[in-house]
Specification:
The complex is a heterodimer of chains A (about 290) and B (about 350). Chain A is an alpha/beta fold and about 290 residues long. Chain A has one domain: Rossmann fold (3-Layer(aba) Sandwich). Chain A contains 8 helices and 15 strands. Chain B has 2 domains: about 200 residues, 3-Layer(aba) Sandwich (Rossmann fold); about 120 residues, 3-Layer(aba) Sandwich (Rossmann fold). Chain B has a 7-stranded parallel β-sheet with strand order 7-11-6-1-4-5-12, with helices on both faces. Chain B has a 5-stranded parallel β-sheet with strand order 15-14-16-17-18. In chain B, helix 2 packs across helix 3 and helix 5 runs parallel beside helix 8. The radius of gyration of chain B is 22 Å and the shape is globular. Chain B starts with 6 loop residues before the first strand and ends with a helix. Classes of the chains: A alpha/beta (about 290), B alpha/beta (about 350). The interface between A and B is large, with 79 and 92 residues. Strand 14 of chain A pairs antiparallel with strand 10 of chain B. Chain A: One of its GO terms (molecular function) is electron transfer activity. Chain A: This is Electron transfer flavoprotein beta subunit. Chain A: Keywords: Electron transport, Transport. Chain A: Pfam families: ETF.
Chain lengths: ~290, ~350
């Protein structure tokens, strides 16, 4: 089997699973500064799937592609630590405010710059929106088949790849030709941890923008080891149409946001005492709610 | 008068049975269509669909597009996307609805990209309303309000799309209520010429094997649900909830945090990205009550919250709030139920 060229799409997301009380501003908008950021969990599964293919077929390369603000370079470094071969960041203020349609347009511009490729992988969905839309939208724009909710790669042949999909009511095994795009389900194996050696090797990886505030030592290191400089692509680098990116390219707009305040019921407040619990159970039985 | 553009629903079908979610969407679509004074349309692609309209027409569908062919079932992305985009281009609807299922979430984004339009996922409320665009100094009338919890369920967002139509949305199963509109509703049926639209390229992905089973879990119809959240603390502690659910003749459910933590299986998740339930009794143990979760259970007739945290938001929905540790409370509930039940 020939080695494959794999592009993994990854996103840095606010950690919405741990939303603290100060995550919302008094006016009901999200206080992004108060949320820590993480490697989107499903995208880590996608990275593992790619690395697993690389284990099986030596010579396979894994390129991590992310779009985001400068801070998202953390995603690329994390990918390096875990075994990715290359990382590319698409970063430009003008990409900001993108919905899934504009995001997929931008990512596809980046993927095309990385062509040729055999596989494009990404997580099924990102925890900050849960839409699961960007994968299929990219596949459409690349005009390649999509295989969503992939759990395991069963076979890798020269002309096709066989994957098992996790559906809401079962599983399905499909064979798809190259190139194709797969979105990876959270039920697939978790990503391997960092390699100590890779951490040593890549901990000084920086984007050009990050290097602007670097000291001389770091600049010298990057001169000696050019692989440490993370490519950073702007609107011009990927030849993106300004009408199709950021807010301009996003058909869906937020009209209003409401902080839901639950209106209080007249609840009976009970303790864990025997008397309280027995009283409640008796009432429930009496009202035929249970029993 | 100009004919109003339609509301169109993509219907899922397997073995000649139209999916529940699709019928729920037809009802939701009908309510939107009536507000707009528009026709309701539907499209369905599958095998052996003769007579399938009997499961669709009663929801008030004015026009049904049927793509019939053995190769169209089970669902595959490319042929269904090709047929759907053909119909959407011909019909030019204003609103298109999909189930937020394995099928709808695979198909709708592909179509949204093809048509270069907006798509809002997992809506819990659909409505019609206006919007004034300041930049254009223009009022857009009769837009789709696609309302969904966002940001881990801490807010509800109203998403609109005024300039890149159609307006598309997906909705989870169980969120919308299905209601027969008229048993004898007259529906125009349009046969789609499948073979002239599809080509070989649409079948490059091959389904090798398929194992579909209805999950043994039926949260949607359970009269009593005992649900646990992250606060349950461990898989072992969930055993208390399982015992109580079994005793009461109910089902066990979990919040997303409990599922993510591995305390309970994925198909038992309740909330916006899980199942929406309306049981007679909902017992929430160790669940704080993010909107993501409460969106899926707030219509329960009675809610009991067991929580260490007196400030847990879910307490505001509850009829009984028990301050305490579930390891103490639940065994006592079991004990006193056994003592008092007839």
């Amino acid at each position: 089997m020939r080695p494959l060229k794999i592009v993994v799409l990854a996103k840095q997301v606010p950690d919405t699973r741990h939303v603290g009380p100060d995550a919302m501003k008094p006016d009901g908008t999200v206080n992004r500064g108060k949320l820590s950021t993480v490697f989107n969990p499903d995208d880590l599964h996608a990275l593992e799937l790619a690395l697993n293919i690389k284990d099986r077929i030596p010579g396979t390369t894994v390129t991590l592609l992310t779009m985001g603000p400068q801070k998202a370079a953390d995603i690329i470094r994390e990918g390096y630590y875990r075994g990715a071969d290359y990382g590319v960041m698409i970063s430009d203020r003008r990409f900001g405010g993108a919905d899934t349609l504009a995001t997929s347009y931008t990512l596809v511009k980046g993927i095309k710059k990385l062509a040729p490729y055999d596989l494009v992988l990404g997580g099924r969905q990102a925890i900050d929106g849960d839409t699961a839309q960007v994968g299929p939208q990219c596949a459409d724009k690349l005009n390649i088949p999509q295989v969503t909710y992939v759990e395991e790669i069963l076979e890798i042949n020269d002309d096709k790849i066989v994957a098992r999909r996790r559906l809401s009511k079962g599983i399905e095994t499909v064979a798809a030709p190259y190139p194709c795009l797969m979105t990876v389900h959270g039920s697939s194996p978790a990503c391997r941890s960092r390699h100590a050696k890779k951490v040593m090797q890549y901990k000084y990886a920086r984007t050009k923008t990050e290097l602007r505030s670097a000291d001389e030592m770091l600049l010298l290191l990057h001169e000696k080891r050019p692989y440490l400089t993370i490519p950073e692509w702007s609107v011009e680098d990927i030849e993106a149409n300004l009408e199709k990116i950021g807010l301009n390219g996003s058909p869906t707009k937020v009209k209003s946001v409401e902080n839901i305040v639950l209106t209080a019921n007249e609840a009976k407040i009970l303790s864990e005492s025997d008397a309280d619990i027995e009283m409640m159970i008796k009432e429930l039985i009496e009202h035929h709610t249970i029993g | 008068m100009e004919k109003k553009k339609s509301v169109l629903v993509y219907c899922e079908v397997e073995n000649q049975k139209v999916a529940d979610i699709s019928q729920e969407l037809l009802s939701a679509g009908k309510r939107l269509a009536e507000k707009l004074g528009s026709p309701l349309e539907a499209m369905i692609f599958g095998a052996n669909l003769n007579g399938i309209e009997s499961q669709i027409a009663p929801y008030g569908v004015d026009k049904l597009f049927v793509g019939n062919g053995l190769k169209l079932e089970p669902y595959q992305t490319l042929p269904h996307a090709a047929l759907a985009s053909y119909i959407l281009n011909e019909e030019d609807p204003q609103i298109v609805l999909f189930g937020a299922t394995s099928v709808g979430r695979d198909l709708a984004p592909r179509l949204a990209s093809k048509l270069n339009c907006g798509l809002t996922a997992d809506c819990t409320i659909l409505d019609i309303g206006d919007h004034f665009v300041k930049k254009e100094k223009k009022e857009y009338k009769d837009l789709l309000y696609a309302i969904r919890p966002a940001f881990g369920g801490s807010i509800m967002a109203n998403i609109i799309n005024w300039d890149m139509h159609p307006q598309m949305a997906t909705v989870r199963e169980g969120v919308m209520k299905k209601e027969i509109f008229d048993e004898h509703y007259s529906t125009e049926i349009v046969e789609v010429d499948v073979n002239s639209i599809l080509n070989k390229e649409d079948f490059v992905v091959e389904i090798i094997d398929r194992e579909i089973k209805e999950s043994g879990v039926n949260l949607k119809d359970a009269p009593i649900i005992v649900a646990g959240g992250y606060g349950v603390g461990s898989k072992e502690n969930f055993d208390y909830l399982i015992e109580l659910a079994e005793l009461l003749g109910g089902e066990v459910g979990g919040s997303r945090a409990a599922v993510d933590a591995g305390f309970i299986e994925h198909d038992r998740q309740i909330g916006q990205t899980g199942t929406t339930v309306r049981p007679k009794l909902y017992i929430a143990a160790g669940i704080s009550g993010a909107i993501q979760h409460t969106a899926g259970m707030q219509d329960a007739s009675m809610i009991i919250s067991i929580n260490n945290d007196p400030e847990a938001p879910i307490n505001k929905l509850a009829d009984y709030v028990i301050h305490g540790d579930l390891g103490v409370v639940v065994p006592k509930m079991i004990k006193y139920y056994k003592q008092n039940a007839k």
